[in-house]
Amino acid sequence: MADQIPMTAEGYRRLEETLQKERERHDDAIATLASLRDDSNDIEDRNLETAQIDLASMEARIFELEDVLARAVVVEVPPEGEGDGQARLGSVVVLADEERGREMTVQLVSAVEVTALTEGITQVSEDSPVGRALLGRRVGEHVEVEVGDRQVRYTVRSVGAG
Predict the structure, then answer these.
(1) Three-class SS state of 94
(2) Lowest mean pLDDT among 27-31, 72-76, 101-105
(3) Which of 4, 19, 44, 45 is the most exposed, fewest CB within 10 Å of its CB?
(4) Distance between CA 139 and CA 67 in Å, rounded?
């Protein structure tokens, strides 16, 4: 069996919604393609060619989403106040950048979720430099991450449920 993909319940739900939308787009594209074929009179039709390319691209995206969802394993994030206090997949972490005097809130998610999750708290892939640095950290611990051409030092202010 192919590798499992851990992800949050919210990420799984959003990927399912994306798959459903892609399937609907695919059905519409098939109808459009059938209409273009019916109207074709053996003359090269750029619209027909474009529709065929778009259809193949949609089919590849649907296959990819189905594969990810088939291999997905939804991780349970302990409710607020429970668990061991370590940052893990699904955790919402508040970080302080004391050098710049600012705080930021991020949620640790799998790489496939980053593209699927677009609203709300900033999503950080667990395999990104920041994500790798945060995994297993607790409140009060410091992490140093290379951001562009500089090192940034963050202090973990809180670790909570997603």
Answers:
(1) strand
(2) 27-31
(3) 44
(4) 36
Query: Domain 92-160 is of which CATH architecture?
Result: Roll (3.10)
Query: How do the domains of the chain map onto residue ranges?
Result: 5-74, 92-160
Residue 131 Cα distances to 1, 125, 156, angstroms: 27, 6, 13
For helices 9-39 and 46-71, give the axis angle rounded to 10 degrees.
160
Domain 5-74 has CATH 3.40.50.1000: no
Give the DSSP letter of residue 77.
P
Strand partners, 152: 145
Residue percentage of the chain with pLDDT more than 90? 39
